[in-house]
Design a protein that fits this description.
- Chains A, B, C, D, E, F: InterPro entries: Creatininase-like_sf, Creatininase/forma_Hydrolase.
- Chains A, B, C, D, E, F: Its cofactor is Zn(2+).
- The structure is a homohexamer.
- By secondary structure, chain A is α/β, with parallel strands linked by helices.
- The first copy, chain A, has a single domain, classed as Creatininase (Rossmann fold, 3-Layer(aba) Sandwich).
- Helix content of chain A is 41%, strand content 10%.
- In chain A, α2 links the parallel β2 and β3.
- In chain A, α2 crosses α9.
- The longest helix of chain A is centred in the C-terminal third of the chain and has 24 residues.
- Chain A is globular, with a radius of gyration of 18 Å.
- The mean pLDDT of chain A is 97.
- Chains C and D meet through α4, β5, β6 and α8 of C and α4, β5, β6 and α8 of D.
């Protein structure tokens, strides 16, 4: 890490020079929300930023990492102590202001690198609105979703999805300080109910609070996580993301 | 059709009586957008309403069909003549006003029955906002997505997705007046480019206009559509949706 | 009916061709609200659309009918079962999005054909805002107000104004399925009170709920309605509206 | 003048005492806009305030006069030098803040006394929104519209409507400093055109700028104005308004 | 007073002529709020307007006085009878509309002449937003803050700040009708508490209601006020303000 | 550092336990903006967070540190490469969402610890709005403004204010990685002009871009900075801030 352009660590003359080659700004987007008893609440923000650092290093000198948007849309988690959630409109306003500021510096292509599933619908709306409103190219990606096939074949505990085998593995590789290894627990899933009828793959979708689904806030079995799996997911996704970015920059 | 409660066709004393048993309002949501040379632009609105009539009949006397929201978020299609698109915020405002009005009549559970994929991200945001803001239960569903397995096994022309084998089949069963049978054409897909790198399953997501992807506005082969396939998709989805609604009403 | 351009029933290539002559979009605007025991709640939306079809036929090939805005500002009626009301800001947002979309297709003149008195103040504000904001020509008209003189001389039951001799007559001509002929009742007017001091012609204006004024939701005597009167009102208004549109298109 | 409660001229202990009897706040609403070569641009604001002083004196000790809202919706006049126009949303926001502040002091009934026709549509929307949002009684009235019959029989120059026989007469009685008597001119009406097809009584309504209609900004013949006519209009309207207010306070 | 351009007292042809030399609009901004037992609630609005008249006379023919914004952000005073407060967003909306209207008349430089401290934060935000949004020069000034040194050396009763020696002195010179000379009282300061820890110069800032700090609504000793001090403050500030305006117009 | 409650580094069960004693949330607020050639652009965000860590440690177990708001209102700096600025409304929206989320966890007192002067006006408005809207206690403080007297007596290079002797000194103590010691430069102040007439202490205030005032983006002489001065400023301010917080918590 370190050889990519990281805006928070640069002076303005350094930025000025970097802008001669930069064609894309990468915006790490996280969340501040409960991650069960074994991960700290900044988990998504830290993972997005670490992944972002790797990505801009990979794309150097074409990309620049912006400050991290460290809170996101976490309304499902609001009943767990400490969770802070932005309204979808607030998140879009933050992104709009960032894009407009960076447009002023000559950047017109943006990738929101998102570590939190709860932000995806808002990003879909943001892509629609901001592309047309500002005349920019707006891309977004879940940090390691590009390695979905590796997840499908490697993750033993299903379903997974929050502070789980996948997420803890990624943290063990990217930011082990996020993990309380002594507290690792499997998800304490609640009996089927309204929540289970709204899970992906069911006819209906809808809003439910996380405690309806899991007593400890986890979905999946974090005790099966490993640094090795994390490394594989991160490295695979990173290569694919970098290639995908190069492709759209060229197209 | 006809034995369900359809609000547009009722007087207020009839509504008053219906409200003694009604526990859910079904809101048909469509779009007004191009559907290639062989479907009329109201396609999604009409299909949503027809499906909604079947669903409230199935659920009678527990459900009531509201007026159809006949325009939606169709920004991807704006460059094709005739398309009209609501901003995501406008669509949410319309839904909010409908829910608040109906809450005043004692209804607190809502299902938006959506026929247009471009509305889904906005509905995700709406579910998050309106559930918490109004204290209601807010569900949403794509009209026939509950029959995804039938689509996977029955549809020959892939990828499909817009004015295609699936959609024309559904229309032939539900509303054949939407189809110009003499004009049926397969999608005129453009060469791979930026658009193809942003299709589902790729690492990046982002906004693109439909004409980048298809010259005639279609994705899939409408010439393979049949009323029989439409009937199977609609009937399968309908049974599953109705059961899913009963389940959440009971839970 | 049918020889005018009706956007909901056209494919995009057909719209493209129509746009070569079209100079005005006609937007039918209704409401979803109680109309007493003898009219269904979609009354205003259906009448606006039917009238719109006649008008674009009359103006063919200069005009095109957009999808109907089927809900409007009906706050006065919210205490009657089934009424759904949009906030004035929501209605303006819907109109703005429609106008902007249609501007993209080359149309810059618009006529909102409104069947519901409760929308008029909002349309006045919309005309002011949208004309200046979008640089369009924005016209609006009550569907049959152009035949005010015929109403004054032909309508026997006064005051009239809601689900009354006039409105039921128009429905009997344009859309008889809206009328429950067996249930026709005169308005059940309440004793004079705050509401009567706020009726048109009094020094003060202000908001009141409809049930303060009429127990069954009607103002006027629907039992005196006739298809003949409806035809005369509609045909007179239609000729005058069409001429008025031609005049502003020429000026 | 002077024996009514005028908030701008009171200290807080005086207001506190007045609130023991006050049941209605009267809000004068004007405009800042051109009034031709013979009236100053604050005309509507000054007339509303003067009329308001008379009205609260008449209603003493039941009513209290608030500060004047001295600018309104004057978009039609924006092309004449000096005109300042508030957006409709801004005017509603100002009224909302005034009502909420005064609700905190125990007042729940409000009369907007409006001297400018261009504000009426916005007041209609405000009445609808603010009544329901704040739970208040919201009334509005044009300052001398209650004397419409007197106008119809006494005003010689028709049509009238802006800086005309009526308005100059009222000013000569209420605030003669607004009038440049040496500059009095009849309206310099433009040839018929789009504007004349949108005047009241025509099938279509719509927005047009005042200079399309009148070269000097006036409609009507100010040279026929008299203090006597002004006095009659003002005194008649005042008595009727005061009675109407007493009636709604009692109902 | 009187030889400056005062928009409220001009006709449009007079404004048209004035605009040939005018380079700056001066917007008086006040408040409607309690000023203790010895000043009327319109105090700030009246002082701002009087000061504005003097300033445009001083700057004649370069400046023009707009209508006074007579209410401002007075939330701290809302618990005293009669206070009316605008939300900060409402005040900014009013200013935006004024600036946009006046831009249409060719003015691009604005000075908000503010008599009320509670408006300052909002004006800071307005300066930031409106400058960039409208491309104007936006200046603001407290009416007599330019004479801060004279205050420091001449005012005996400290702390001062509301309906005090300074403010009553200014009123005795500019608008003696605002003062109830028989009721003059020193501020009835409350015992130290949360409010005193939030006064200027303390580590923390924050919102508190005025009655926490002063029982009669005054800060400072109005009994020591004099017309002479008022004249000195006003005349000193006026000269400095006028010079400062000339300097920025020249730079 | 480390013995205070830092929300980003805690799990939800740890937060739950902490909430038993916590009475105040400290929200670090920074900016992302140019700090001349010798400080990185995240300077204000990092200093706010470091200072926040010290403060919650000092107040332990009464206070909890929230995630840092790392971008703020930096419009003055937008023309220097890399600066990102939030609109004032966006910053208020972010703070509102944070406060509402934390209210749900039982916290009702908040201190925004702000390292950037450009945020102060927005915080003034936020304090006014959010206090009344949410019913919370909302405090804000510049990080080291409580040591103003130490600055006045210790700082040699005046004026100072941005990436200067004071700020670099604080960074050398709190976060030396922000400083490029080899690049330290005094401010490259521009000749007097419009900007100098708008500096604090002048009669007029208004918006100007930073490059009008300083070519390298600095105000003050960073070459005179020292870790010792930074330590004194930070430690003095910290003790005073902590005491001020304890005082308001007790009052």
């Amino acid at each position: 890490m370190g050889q990519g352009y990281v805006l928070t660590e640069m002076t303005w003359p350094e930025v000025k020079e970097a802008l001669e080659t930069v064609r894309l700004a990468v915006i790490p987007l996280g969340a501040h929300e409960q991650h069960g008893p074994h991960m700290t609440e900044s988990c998504d923000a830290v993972l997005a930023e670490r992944m972002g650092r790797l990505l801009v290093a990979e794309l150097h000198p074409l990309a620049l990492l912006t400050p991290t948007v460290s809170m996101g849309v976490s309304s499902h988690h609001l009943h767990f102590p400490g969770t802070i959630s932005l309204e979808p409109d607030t998140l879009i306003a933050v992104l709009r202001d960032m894009l407009r500021s960076l447009q002023g510096h000559g950047i017109s292509k943006f990738l929101v690198l998102n570590a939190h599933g709860g932000n995806q619908a808002t990003l879909g709306v943001a892509a629609d609105k901001l592309t047309r409103e500002l005349g920019v190219e707006f891309y977004y990606a879940k940090t390691t979703a590009a390695a979905k096939d590796v997840m499908d074949e490697s993750i033993a505990s299903k379903p997974y999805g929050h502070s789980c085998e996948r997420e803890v593995s990624e943290a063990l590789y990217l930011a082990p300080e996020l993990v309380r290894e002594a507290q690792l627990e499997p998800g304490a899933i609640q009996p089927p109910g309204r929540w289970s009828r709204l899970r992906p793959g069911n006819p209906l979708q809808g809003f439910y609070y996380y405690e309806e689904m899991t007593a400890n806030g986890c979905i999946g079995d974090a005790t099966r996580a490993s640094r090795e799996l994390g490394e594989r997911l991160v490295r695979t996704a990173l290569q694919r993301l970098a290639q995908a970015v190069r492709d759209v920059l060229d197209s």
